[in-house]
Amino acid sequence: MQHETFHYPALSDVQSAAEKLNAFVPLKEDLSPLYQPLQLGAKTADNRIAFQPMEGTDGTESGAPDKLTIRRYERFAKAGPGLIWFEAVATVPEGRASAHQLMLTEDNVDEYARLLDHMREISLKENGYAPVIVMQATNSGRYSKPTGVPDPIIAYNCPPLEDTPLPEWRIVTDDQLRRYEEAFGRAAKLCRKAGFDGMDVKCCHRYLACELLSAYTRPGEYGGSYENRTRFLKNAYRAAKSEVSGDFFLSSRMNVYDGFPYPYGFGVHEGSLEPDLQEPIRLIRELKDEFGIPLINVTMGNPYKNPHVNRPYDRGNYVPDEHPLEGVSRMMKGLSEIQHAIPDLPVLGSAFSYLRQHSPNLASAMVDGGHCAMAGFGRMAFAYPDFVQDCRRDGCISGRSVCVTCGGCAQLLRAGTPAGCIIRDREVYKL
Fold first, then answer.
1. If one looks up domain 11-415 in CATH, what number appears?
2. Which of 145, 165, 184, 207 has the greatest CB tally within 10 Å of its CB?
């Protein structure tokens, strides 16, 4: 199905298109709901805008932030979001997604501490407040490329993701999983030492913890039943919790819908590709009750296989069989269902950037309507970080500066080269 590129100059044009598609895309002209504070446990975010974890593939080989990494977070801090969800940081060397993915160690923890201090100083000077900063701790699992070539660690063979089954020795053993659980404990200790406010036990986009949620066909104590499929994530939380104290918190960026048929997709109805959020809601509620998570960062899909699910777009080589507004609607409905099911847990949402200059209007309507508590921007943060203060000052953002959902940043990431916006940030990133 070929779609026209984005052609909605006015909010009314978006509303009309959404109505024709019977899509849930609420919009609000008043953006003030985005500029209310949000309590996150013992921390307070100045506003309801978050920058999502956008990996730059530009760390040093030892895993420390390099010049481009520092430049990116300087730009993010100056922009003034209430929360910066710091990009994926590997918990073990073999679980790095590239040779230049960040990896926090005893040897480089001071470099992270200096970067965090620098970010807070910039935001305090420019905006009068410091952001809440959460580090995303990851094991890349299926997408591990620690030396720059694929070296996958899989939970099970998954036909929707494989042209031919991967060798059995690629399947991680139960003993290896136990070691990887403990690695999240070490990561949390270093994360706290570096000065992050919290840590995300990454559970999205079919990286290791996420893939295990759909391990229906895996034998043993990490597959089959709900209790087994959630074992790794909960044990990783327990390992992390044992190493930290005080107001440091844990959370997750979590896939609540994979978009693959049963038995290969989490949060999916048997017999169809429709979302079924019963298990995701149960899991999120259990994480809140046992670990006191102060928010949950909700996403969907797999950027390698069905990127339109979590990043609706209308450009690129792969054309999905749905209108981008239908993808936006799926995400917004999912956010709303989870927020209403667990009203005392703030939900951080995704997939706003497709609406370009109207994305803050969608975010404002979602927050104001109680469908989520915070709006997360990833691609837009690469392209146009200053939109946060432009919205606050002008009540709108420039259509000439927005992300155009071309997917170029994701292509750079998959290639293992420094990633950013190939359209708006040519000072560093060249076409």
1. 3.20.20.70
2. 184
